[in-house]
Specification:
The chain contains three helices and 37 strands. With about 550 residues, it is mainly β.
Length: about 550
């Protein structure tokens, strides 16, 4: 058992230390929660989750290997302990007249799963494949009921609605747009088709854009706002719109929007996209944000021929938009003075001078900064986002490497500046002046094509060593600079790497093992002498 916040004081006497250890081992034993507590009285309480609480059965079954499913999950109760002897039952009597089942044995309209125990942090789940009977009329609807029992807990039931017939709404794919001019407007000619067997009363169209785009025009039947749970947004807050169009969509037909969905390309745009997806309309449309319906046009659908072949459409698509824009990344180095055997901190800085904001959500080709460590020094502390670069990729985090690749995953907006402090230990025989370069590149080793101003893409670290050796170090047999330290060799930049996004990796090592050993030995002798003097002082008595 651990005791957070407990602090112990240890005296110099070994006897006191043993006494404290004995006291620590003889502490009071941990006690279970009293049986009269609320958790013990009520027991664990569990709740079902389902992938969908309303499912539709294709009629006829177009893809025999992909039937509809009632898929359930049962997570444990983190505050109630383990649920014992759990048995899950699905009552299908409300749908058995028009549906067949597979995937688990069912008896007399009851399908059971003996789950047994579900721990507080545990999870159990299952599924039942459901298919409409060949003679089941379209539109037939019923319900299936999930229940469960436990010897010491309670589990709330859940009902799933099942309907024969589908409304499979899909959209077309738009080709990538390159060279979009900042300040211009683009139109997205989105079409919607019904690939199902039943008429959909309308469509719910959801639009999501990256921050370099803006919706224009806006429609009266669209609710505009923001979202931070977009599947491909990595937690970013993106602009979104939910448009409900009440035009019925008949099976096997395609429709175009009465007016193209438009986006304005902002001055900060670079690598952008418009995501669009459709589904049958929900009961209500979220009204978060500003609908701006005063005098705005209403978006409707216009029939536009037959539905396209199944392989050419999808429920969700992403329109890639690459702007004709640049982001000027400026690199700044640092210089300092230090003595042999001491440590010095140099800071590299990366700044985005714009005009574009870099935020690449659809690729791993992120911004990187390759930092060389000066000859005659050893990196002992580096930012956590920086990892050793071996010429082909990055290695596990560690100090003492000759090169580091620092990764910036974005967003990297205009005006942002990031400091990268490197703590270096100077060798005893370091050159009087030693330096190394740093430069921008992608984490995959390529050039950053969006940064066309190359003059400020490189900078230097410089260390001036007080009482150091020669200004350039001695030359080795092959003409390379001599001395001890992290002299980088010519590397071929060609492969990918990744690293965390927060500074702070701490480690200690030395560039000169002999110097560190000598220093440590001397420090130990001094400390021993001081301790001996203090002991003698305490034991000296003056004769009276």
């Amino acid at each position: 058992m651990s005791f957070p916040g407990l602090r112990r004081r240890f005296g110099a006497s070994a006897a006191i230390a043993v006494t404290l250890l004995a006291m620590g081992l003889s502490g009071a034993p941990a006690q279970a929660e009293p049986s009269g507590s609320s958790a013990a009285q009520s027991g664990p309480e569990l709740n079902f989750t389902v992938t969908r609480d309303k499912i539709r059965l294709p009629q006829p079954l177009v893809y025999p290997d992909d039937p509809a499913q009632i898929s359930w999950g049962l997570p444990g109760d983190p505050d109630g302990g383990t649920a014992r002897d759990v048995v899950v039952t699905l009552d299908v009597s409300g749908i058995s007249a028009f549906a067949d089942f597979s995937g688990i044995s069912c008896s007399e309209d009851l399908c059971s799963w003996p789950v047994r125990d579900i721990e507080a942090d545990g999870f159990s789940g299952g599924l039942l494949e459901v298919m409409a009977k060949p003679d089941a009329p379209l539109g037939t609807t019923g319900t299936a009921r999930l229940t469960a029992t436990s010897s010491n807990g309670t589990i709330a039931p859940l009902t799933v609605q099942v309907t024969v017939g589908t409304m499979d709404l899909v959209v077309n794919r738009l080709p990538q747009k390159n060279g979009a001019q900042p300040g211009s407007s683009l139109e997205a000619p989105i079409t919607v088709a019904n690939m199902g067997s039943m008429t959909s009363p309308g469509v719910e169209l959801t639009l999501t854009t990256t921050q370099g785009l803006d919706f224009a025009p806006r429609f009266a039947n669209c609710a505009y706002g923001t979202t931070d749970d977009f599947p491909y947004g990595h937690g970013r807050t993106l602009d979104s719109a939910v448009c409900r169009v009440d035009t019925p969509l008949e099976p096997g037909k395609r429709y175009r929007l009465s007016a193209p969905v438009g986006v304005d390309v902002r001055g900060t745009a670079l690598f952008e996209f418009l995501d669009y997806r459709v589904k049958p309309p929900a009961g209500t449309v979220t009204t978060a944000g500003d609908s701006r319906d005063g005098g705005a046009p209403v978006l409707t659908l216009v029939q536009d021929g037959a539905a396209p072949p199944p392989g050419t459409v999808t429920e969700q698509a992403m329109w890639m938009i690459n702007a004709a824009n640049t982001a000027d990344l400026a690199v700044t180095g640092d210089s300092a003075e230090a003595g042999p055997g001491t440590e010095v901190t140099l800071t590299a800085k990366l700044r985005n001078d714009g005009p574009a904001t870099f935020d690449l959500l659809t690729s791993d080709d992120q911004i990187g900064l390759l930092v060389d460590i000066p000859e005659g020094t050893t990196a002992v502390r580096v930012p956590e986002r920086c990892r050793p670069w071996n010429g082909l990729g990055t290695d596990d985090p560690r100090p003492g490497a000759p090169q580091y690749l620092c990764e910036f995953r974005g967003p990297f907006p205009v005006g942002r500046s990031v400091d990268l402090p490197f703590t270096l230990r100077v060798a005893e025989d370091a050159p009087a002046t030693t330096g190394a370069t740093m430069r921008t590149m992608s984490v995959n080793g390529g050039e950053l094509t969006f940064d066309t101003h190359k003059a400020n893409n490189t900078a230097e670290f410089t260390v001036r060593v007080n009482n150091g050796g020669g200004s350039g170090g001695s030359s080795g047999p092959d003409g390379a600079a001599g001395g001890h330290g992290n002299q980088p060799q010519t590397q071929t930049i060609s492969a990918s790497g990744s690293g965390p996004d927060t500074p702070g990796m701490l480690a200690a090592t030395g560039s000169s093992g002999a110097a560190v050993t000598a220093w440590a030995s001397g420090a130990a002798l001094v400390a021993g002498a001081a301790l001996l003097a203090a002991t003698r002082g305490r034991g000296h008595r003056t004769a009276g």
